[in-house]
């Protein structure tokens, strides 16, 4: 089974891109499955179900989405194997720019949109830096110049990434994306494979339910901001 | 220049010298929150002053930062040979929606203008998509697009990295909150243009020539009128975009000199496709592709009679323009005004 991981900020168009991509792949119904990792709630299962694509949803809730991803992705692969898929696509919404749900050797796609501001690629970090393919959406409503500057800023962060502009509504560009997927690795399990980047580390009192503000309540791993006196 | 050459440079020159020679290195430092390192030291020494913890946040150690910087400088010093050398493209026909063969082969050279006409939903976008992905008989239309008379393998198609085609359409907007000058400078910088001021100046001048109403370079791009926006986008595409092919989708009634706009792009040796129903634009093209049932129905060469009729059409167009301007200025429409 081929495995592809897709990540990107909320509302960047991940689901639209995956749907257009599956359409383009032209594989028999039921041979591609999707696992959607989200935080609190999501309506994307409806879009997948309407398209007749088997989908499973997982919500990280109070757990860091990256930690949640890495502790469940192997189970996702096993679900895919049991379901007899030829391809499994995991889709995860990155909430903090630190998110990077990519695995070494597994084709990884980052979806970001042109409306998020030209400098956004330079701020995203590992989610963009460690992706094999960067898909840019919503390019049809901004100027050519802004598309080019955006692509330039992506290159700054990820010099080796392939950049593909995909229109999530018409599907323009998804054909080339589908071609890339042929290179995706066949896997049976992810056991012993490694993440491309460490997950955010934070084991502090607030992780375990503390809500009161003040030094007396802060325990465990903390990072304090430095303020310059004026 | 390859990675090793840059490694030698950053190991022997101060940060300040490297930045002076490769201004883009400044961006690299900013990307890793390293803008404040000492500029009078060489890179390895300057990095020694940075806290380990901060580098760890990026998942890098000092040696990796240096490696990454070299790859970064290498990436942005490469010249784009592949794109500059697109002299012609050839469209080899496939099939229409009824699976009937198109039986055509059309070669278009740099500087040529081709218009695409046909009812809404007839398959114009499919043709434009085929061109954009350099279809090799592997899209639903089974068309083949050749560059400089040659077929392309997947590797070459991927190399283009979405840079082959620049697009311009009525739905496009500026979303950056910058002045016209800042906007052009930003684009020029991303193209690593050496003579930024000169190019920006030319571009701005040209945009003003195309626009019906003048605008200053301190105008925010988001405040430009539809016509001014379109004019700026076209001038920018002509002078700054690296893409050898330009796809223009419906720019009629934009309040700009659209014939001049298209001719300007052609003069810059671009291959231009205009999807339009505007007679003035359609007949300015050398040829027009007629789309029907999802396929290329026929290719018409603009006839001498049609070329000659352009003057007449322009007169019609000017009458309409005059009517619009009269309305805008609070005037009354008289019979005199609609005489051609």
From TrEMBL, chain A:
Organism listed in the record: Acetobacterium paludosum
Gene Ontology molecular function, alphabetical: GTPase activity; nickel cation binding; zinc ion binding
Stretches assigned to the CobW/HypB/UreG nucleotide-binding domain: 4-164
Protein name according to UniProt: CobW/HypB/UreG nucleotide-binding domain-containing protein
A GO biological process held by the record: protein maturation
PANTHER family: COBW_HYPB_UREG NUCLEOTIDE-BINDING DOMAIN-CONTAINING PROTEIN (PTHR30134:SF1), HYDROGENASE PROTEIN ASSEMBLY PROTEIN, NICKEL CHAPERONE (PTHR30134)
Listed InterPro entries: CobW/HypB/UreG_nucleotide-bd, Hyd_mat_HypB, P-loop_NTPase
UniProt cross-references to Gene3D superfamilies, sorted A to Z: P-loop containing nucleotide triphosphate hydrolases
From TrEMBL, chain B:
Alphabetical list of SUPFAM superfamilies matching this protein: P-loop containing nucleoside triphosphate hydrolases
Coiled-coil residue spans: none
Domain ABC transporter residues, every copy: 81-319
InterPro entries, per the entry: AAA+_ATPase (IPR003593), ABC_transporter-like_ATP-bd (IPR003439), ABC_transporter-like_CS (IPR017871), P-loop_NTPase (IPR027417)
PROSITE patterns documented for this protein: ABC_TRANSPORTER_1, ABC_TRANSPORTER_2
GO molecular function: ATP binding; ATP hydrolysis activity
Superkingdom of this protein's organism: Bacteria
Family label: Belongs to the ABC transporter superfamily.
Record protein name field: ATP-binding cassette domain-containing protein
Organism: Acetobacterium paludosum
Taxonomy of the source species: Bacteria, Bacillati, Bacillota, Clostridia, Eubacteriales
């Amino acid at each position: 089974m081929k495995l592809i991981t897709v990540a990107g900020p909320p509302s960047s168009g991940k689901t639209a891109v995956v749907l257009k991509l599956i359409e383009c792949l032209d594989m028999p119904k039921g041979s591609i499955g999707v696992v959607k990792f989200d935080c609190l709630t999501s309506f994307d299962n409806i879009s997948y179900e309407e398209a007749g694509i088997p989908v499973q949803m997982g919500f990280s809730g109070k757990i860091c989405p990256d930690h949640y991803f890495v502790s469940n992705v192997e189970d996702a692969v096993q679900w895919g194997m049991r379901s007899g898929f030829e391809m499994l696509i995991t889709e995860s919404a990155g909430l903090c720019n630190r998110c990077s749900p990519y695995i070494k050797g597994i084709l990884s796609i980052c979806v970001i949109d042109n409306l998020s501001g030209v400098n956004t690629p330079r701020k995203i970090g590992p989610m963009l830096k460690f992706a094999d393919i960067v898909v840019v959406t919503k390019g049809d409503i901004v100027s050519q110049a802004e598309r080019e500057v955006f692509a330039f800023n992506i290159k700054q962060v990820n010099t080796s990434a392939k950049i593909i502009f995909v229109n999530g509504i018409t599907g323009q560009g998804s054909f080339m994306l589908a071609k890339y997927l042929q290179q995706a690795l066949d896997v049976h399990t992810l056991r012993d494979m490694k993440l491309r980047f460490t997950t955010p580390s934070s084991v502090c009192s607030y992780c375990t339910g503390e809500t009161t503000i003040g030094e007396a309540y802060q325990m465990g791993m903390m990072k304090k901001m430095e303020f310059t006196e004026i | 220049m390859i990675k090793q050459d840059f490694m030698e440079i950053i190991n022997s020159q101060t940060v300040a010298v490297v930045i002076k020679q490769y201004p883009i290195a400044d961006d690299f430092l900013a990307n890793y929150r390293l803008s404040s390192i000492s500029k009078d030291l060489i890179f390895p020494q300057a990095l020694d002053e940075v806290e380990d913890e901060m580098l760890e946040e990026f998942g890098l150690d000092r040696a990796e930062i240096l490696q990454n910087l070299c790859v970064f400088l290498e990436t942005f010093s490469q010249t784009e040979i592949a794109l500059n050398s697109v002299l012609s493209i050839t469209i080899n026909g496939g099939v229409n929606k009824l699976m009937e063969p198109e039986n055509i082969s059309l070669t278009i050279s740099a500087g040529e203008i081709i218009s695409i006409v046909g009812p809404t939903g007839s398959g114009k976008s499919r043709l434009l998509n085929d061109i954009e992905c350099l279809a090799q008989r592997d899209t639903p239309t089974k068309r083949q697009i050749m560059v400089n008379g040659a077929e392309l393998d997947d590797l070459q198609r991927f190399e283009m990295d979405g840079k082959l085609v620049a697009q311009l359409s009525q739905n496009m907007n500026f979303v950056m909150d910058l002045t016209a000058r800042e906007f052009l400078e930003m684009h020029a910088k991303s193209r690593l243009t050496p003579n930024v001021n000169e190019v920006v100046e030319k571009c701005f001048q040209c945009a003003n020539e195309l626009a019906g109403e003048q605008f200053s370079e301190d105008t925010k791009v988001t405040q430009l009128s539809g016509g001014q926006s379109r004019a700026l986008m076209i001038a920018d595409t002509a002078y700054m975009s690296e893409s050898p092919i330009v796809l223009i989708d419906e720019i009629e009634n934009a309040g700009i000199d659209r014939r001049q706009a298209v001719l300007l792009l052609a003069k810059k040796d671009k291959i231009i496709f205009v999807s339009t129903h505007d007679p003035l634009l359609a007949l300015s093209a050398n040829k027009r592709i007629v789309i029907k049932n999802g396929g290329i129905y026929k290719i018409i060469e603009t006839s001498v009679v049609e070329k000659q009729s352009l003057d007449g059409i322009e007169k019609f167009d000017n009458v309409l323009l005059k009517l619009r301007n009269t309305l805008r200025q609070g005037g009354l429409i008289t019979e005199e005004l609609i005489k051609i």
